[in-house]
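fold-stage: in
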Amino acid sequence: MSNWAPGGALASNVEITAATVLRGDIIQVGGRACRVSDLFQLPQGAKQLLFESGELLTINGRTRLVAVRMTRRR
């Protein structure tokens, strides 16, 4: 599903894993939308996500989440 967002950006729901998560992805955790501000590679394919709020979330190589990803309109 894709929707237009303010400013001409396209928002789409994507399934993410530790291998595909990107800075700027918005993940809902505990009922709150959290934007990924930084990523840290960990052993065995895991990643630690730092959110704009300062909270951390560690996901392993098998974790699957749904995120909103904003892409710029061309």
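fold-stage: in (second)
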Amino acid sequence: MFRRRESVPFSFVAEADRFRSNVTPPPRRRATRSQLAAHSLVGLTLIAGFAGSLLFGLPALDTDRTPSHGQTSEASQHR
């Protein structure tokens, strides 16, 4: 009926905080010029896409403008 709690040694967790490895990771490889150019090109393409979407999207979202030419359907003219 009653479960007996077993003691679990958690001392390894406390020791893990104090443990320092003497193995250093290898140095990061530097990007080549072609990789830097490719990353720059992708970034510029994304920025140009966002700028283009703003350029073409903002006039469509403008609600203060009234249409410069009268848009009436033929059905409303022949009532």
